[in-house]
Amino acid sequence: MMRPPIILLKDGTENKQGKGQIISNINACQIVADSIRTTLGPRGLDKLIVDSKGATTISNDGATILKLLDIVFPAASTMVDIARSQDAEVGDGTTSVVVLAAEILKQMKPFVEDGVHPQLLIRAIGKACEKALKYLADLEIKISGAGELREMLVKCAATTLSSKLVSQERQFFANMVVDAVNTLDVNLPLDMIGIKKVNGGNLNESRLIKGVAFQKAFSYAGFEMQPKKYSNVKIALLNVELELKAEKDNAEMRLTNVTDFQAVVDAEWNILYDKLQKIHDSGANVVLSKLPIGDVATQWFADRDMFCAGRIPQDDLDRLMAACGGSVLTTVSQIDDSVLGKCGKFYEQQVGSERYNFFEDCSKAQACTLLLRGGAEQFIEETERSLHDAIMIVRRAKKNDSIVAGGGAIEMELSRLVREFAREIEGKDQAFWMAYAQAFEVIPRQLCQNAGLDALDILNKLRHRHAQNEKWAGIDIHREAVGDNLAACVWEPSIVKRNAITAATEAACLVLSIDQTVKNVRTPSGGAMPGLPGQ
Amino acid sequence: MAQASAQLLFDESGQPFIVMREQENQKRITGVEAVKSHILAARAVANTLRTSLGPRGLDKMLVSPDGDVTITNDGATIMEKMDVQHHVAKLMVELSKSQDHEIGDGTTGVVVLAGALLEESEKLIDRGIHPIKIADGFDLACKKALETLDSISDRFPVENRERLVETAQTSLGSKIVNRSIRQFAEIAVDAVLSVADIESKDVNFEMIKMEGKVGGRLEDTILVKGIVIDKTMSHPQMPKEIKNAKVAILTCPFEPPKPKTKHKLDITSTEDFQALRDYERQTFETMIKQVKDSGATLAICQWGFDDEANHLLQANDLPAVRWVGGPEIELLAIATNARIVPRFAELSEAKLGTAGLVREITFGAAKDRMLSIEECPNNKAVTVFVRGGNKMIIDEAKRALHDALCVIRNLVRDNRIVYGGGSAELAAAIQVAKEADRIDGIEQYAFRAFADALESIPMALAENSGLAPIEALSDLKAKQIETGNSFLGIDAVFAGTNDMKEQKVIETLLSKREQISLATQVVRMILKIDDVRVPDDEKMGGY
């Protein structure tokens, strides 16, 4: 007898399940990792991506590249997610986390093919991960003392920057980044470090301004007549429009008498003049507003030797407030000396082809600005991303003052420890643990491959050194040999590694636990309207 | 080809799967392939500019999509107008732009140098050297070259006007204006010196205005210590020349003031209407009275005024200019020491500016007239008034002047100089090559390559001047090494001597340093890319 077929899903829906699905997911993750694998380490190369609109990005940052690749394969997008989470959490190590996750999956693939239940694998690598983190905690070195702390931060920043485009100038930038972070208050708010980019000039003309700098705003006639240099500046920060302006759109006046006409015009002017006078009376000599400052106000201030700038971006204003004190006012009626920001020096200077306003020697000094210079736009953008990574690292390291040696050293040591521990495990779990331990070796191997070194040779040397208890032996790319990376000052905050290991393991578990994907047909856009019969 | 790897992938069961959106429409090039294709693109751009280098460099003619013709040999301008598509070639464009923004001169040289560096690095890549090692070597070599430049640099006497003029002449030498080179050089020097703030070593270019008018000869170009605006007196009967003028600068229109809020005036009777008419006339009269009372003899207004006001102004003997743009108003205010007045009520004698001579200049047979305000109390604002046979020449002359202005400005900022004619590059190349032998490791090769690339500048100069390039260069190199004299360069203008100090061919150290370090930076960036994903135009149906 014929059974009617049971239609469960809409026609065209992709439905894949079973072992094949897990393996195909693993493969997809592998491909994602492959596309950023070569960016790892000081000899890692950059990727150039042109999007469909023609915008060019050149980057070495894993998270940035993955974001631009626009990945649609469902399981593979977990790779993008962990790169992003690493970026948000610690800001660096985005490439290594993806490479590590893909490698764990690769190590697990033969087991899946052999028919091991994924849950067994997940349980084993979860436990192995816990163990690895414990070892990591034992290995990390605490740094104490103010001088040493600074040195540690500089070294961590330099390690991060060594794989970037600016690696030649890494000492210069590392010091700059540490100085920048050190000016912040205890919470280390990231947005108090402004990064301004000016095309042209040389990388090492970049500088750190302990204070705030921003580009000259659009100005009206009269601006050039204002003084551009003050000392002992009093700054009025406003959120007030200083312009002759119409009252709300729906307001309308009916004048019945010609004489009223003049009165209304005068009233309008007086409203503005009142505001201006109040600002002047408060003793401020620099007036900044988030909203426009019109031509009348510009000329009025010019007349009284005051400086003004309108349309200042919110974040610059916030930074200025953090640096100079004072508060942003939404009305000028209460303005007096106590709400003005104060700083030692204000001046305008030409930077490249732009004019910049600088506020220095600020009274509270909890904000700073990095002024980046560089040849091409893409170049500065990549520098900004690199510095962002370095800033994040320094921030994390400052709160969490323990470090490990980079250059594959910590990974090799963890791999060895996990493997040693695994030998004492009974049952087939041992094999899984071994595979997990093996996965850590991908980082040093990739570093070698990117540098064009013989990975097999170096890795064997490393294993040898680690077996002899040289726990900080790692790859010294510049000498193309194995060396003690703790002594060579290749340092990374341990939190980077901790987060990378956790995130990679979790992502691997996630991918392993999926055994079915149901993907709905995309509603055809622009095609026939659904529900219209006969088309 | 390596690009196949990004295309279609098959899983174990033979089904294709797609990881990235529209990956079938992407072109991907990886590895050495990518680096090489980039080098090719960048070199193509550099080769275009190569023939524009130096005093005997030739111009390029560029026609824009709307038919505008530009003739120039300014590197940055050519690059900008070429409208390149290739993503790496765009980097070269930015390179010359960045030199233009920072220094304003040497925009051709920087691109030629970057092209030469890439050409050299291609050879090294063929030998199997890791791109980053090449880049590292270049960086080291760049440092050495900069050191050499520092050591051969001379101090320049900025106070000496004559020497400044000579420097400006070097920059102008390769441009279209070299027929009246001396005159243009003097204009550039005087313009910068009058606006420069020697103390803070800052020059505000917004204070130098450039006006051009077709007609006359290039030689008629003048520097006006004051402002020239493309406007005339509002009424034809107003005086054409005012001596010792007192200028009122107004940003309010000569018309009855209106509130900004939406308003309506209800007129219900004839009397009311009459009153309104009276009011309007009265306002005009008070306005003019106010201007008169302040003692002004010339009113310059940002806005217009209608015929009635115009007539009244004429009747009251008050010359006026209308529709003067914002930046010009500003310059005028600075030059005449006036305050910009937003309301008639605020006019007072203290706010007026003064000008020794205000006159209308007429040109040729055409009815073109312009207003020139001269003999101003403040010399901080000047105008260069360029004349020339056609618009293209004027534009090119303006660009040439801009370059010269930048050179002078850079000297004011930093008075160290090196000598031109490729002598500085050659001296640096010799030092870098010498240093190369002392380096162990693969960087040695990169060092030598860098030295070779530096030599491409004098080489291109010699080529463009019609000299036998290899002969001239080897000759020169031998002489430099023999005498240790770093001033020997290519005698591009056949002056009879190779000594650039004698020929007075001078370039700023700042510009040379910037050229070398910028070029190295960009080359590093290009070398570091090994993976490119570009939307494939052919498959997307473009072209």
Automatic annotation (TrEMBL), chain A:
<dbReference type="InterPro" id="IPR027409">
    <property type="entry name" value="GroEL-like_apical_dom_sf"/>
</dbReference>
<keyword id="KW-0547">Nucleotide-binding</keyword>
<protein>
    <recommendedName>
        <fullName>T-complex protein 1 subunit eta</fullName>
    </recommendedName>
</protein>
<dbReference type="GO" id="GO:0005832">
    <property type="term" value="C:chaperonin-containing T-complex"/>
</dbReference>
<dbReference type="Pfam" id="PF00118">
    <property type="entry name" value="Cpn60_TCP1"/>
</dbReference>
<dbReference type="InterPro" id="IPR054827">
    <property type="entry name" value="thermosome_alpha"/>
</dbReference>
<comment type="subunit">
    <text>Heterooligomeric complex that forms two stacked rings.</text>
</comment>
<comment type="function">
    <text>Molecular chaperone; assists the folding of proteins upon ATP hydrolysis. Known to play a role, in vitro, in the folding of actin and tubulin.</text>
</comment>
<dbReference type="GO" id="GO:0051082">
    <property type="term" value="F:unfolded protein binding"/>
</dbReference>
<dbReference type="GO" id="GO:0005524">
    <property type="term" value="F:ATP binding"/>
</dbReference>
<dbReference type="InterPro" id="IPR002194">
    <property type="entry name" value="Chaperonin_TCP-1_CS"/>
</dbReference>
<keyword id="KW-0067">ATP-binding</keyword>
<dbReference type="GO" id="GO:0016887">
    <property type="term" value="F:ATP hydrolysis activity"/>
</dbReference>
<dbReference type="InterPro" id="IPR012720">
    <property type="entry name" value="Chap_CCT_eta"/>
</dbReference>
<keyword id="KW-0963">Cytoplasm</keyword>
<dbReference type="GO" id="GO:0140662">
    <property type="term" value="F:ATP-dependent protein folding chaperone"/>
</dbReference>
<keyword id="KW-0143">Chaperone</keyword>
<dbReference type="InterPro" id="IPR002423">
    <property type="entry name" value="Cpn60/GroEL/TCP-1"/>
</dbReference>
<dbReference type="InterPro" id="IPR053374">
    <property type="entry name" value="TCP-1_chaperonin"/>
</dbReference>
<comment type="similarity">
    <text>Belongs to the TCP-1 chaperonin family.</text>
</comment>
<dbReference type="InterPro" id="IPR027410">
    <property type="entry name" value="TCP-1-like_intermed_sf"/>
</dbReference>
<dbReference type="InterPro" id="IPR017998">
    <property type="entry name" value="Chaperone_TCP-1"/>
</dbReference>
Automatic annotation (TrEMBL), chain B:
<comment type="similarity">
    <text>Belongs to the TCP-1 chaperonin family.</text>
</comment>
<protein>
    <recommendedName>
        <fullName>T-complex protein 1 subunit epsilon</fullName>
    </recommendedName>
</protein>
<dbReference type="GO" id="GO:0140662">
    <property type="term" value="F:ATP-dependent protein folding chaperone"/>
</dbReference>
<keyword id="KW-0067">ATP-binding</keyword>
<keyword id="KW-0547">Nucleotide-binding</keyword>
<dbReference type="InterPro" id="IPR053374">
    <property type="entry name" value="TCP-1_chaperonin"/>
</dbReference>
<dbReference type="InterPro" id="IPR012718">
    <property type="entry name" value="Chap_CCT_epsi"/>
</dbReference>
<keyword id="KW-0963">Cytoplasm</keyword>
<dbReference type="InterPro" id="IPR002194">
    <property type="entry name" value="Chaperonin_TCP-1_CS"/>
</dbReference>
<dbReference type="InterPro" id="IPR002423">
    <property type="entry name" value="Cpn60/GroEL/TCP-1"/>
</dbReference>
<dbReference type="Pfam" id="PF00118">
    <property type="entry name" value="Cpn60_TCP1"/>
</dbReference>
<dbReference type="GO" id="GO:0051082">
    <property type="term" value="F:unfolded protein binding"/>
</dbReference>
<dbReference type="GO" id="GO:0016887">
    <property type="term" value="F:ATP hydrolysis activity"/>
</dbReference>
<keyword id="KW-0143">Chaperone</keyword>
<dbReference type="InterPro" id="IPR054827">
    <property type="entry name" value="thermosome_alpha"/>
</dbReference>
<dbReference type="InterPro" id="IPR017998">
    <property type="entry name" value="Chaperone_TCP-1"/>
</dbReference>
<dbReference type="InterPro" id="IPR027409">
    <property type="entry name" value="GroEL-like_apical_dom_sf"/>
</dbReference>
<dbReference type="GO" id="GO:0005524">
    <property type="term" value="F:ATP binding"/>
</dbReference>
<dbReference type="InterPro" id="IPR027413">
    <property type="entry name" value="GROEL-like_equatorial_sf"/>
</dbReference>
<dbReference type="InterPro" id="IPR027410">
    <property type="entry name" value="TCP-1-like_intermed_sf"/>
</dbReference>
<dbReference type="GO" id="GO:0005832">
    <property type="term" value="C:chaperonin-containing T-complex"/>
</dbReference>
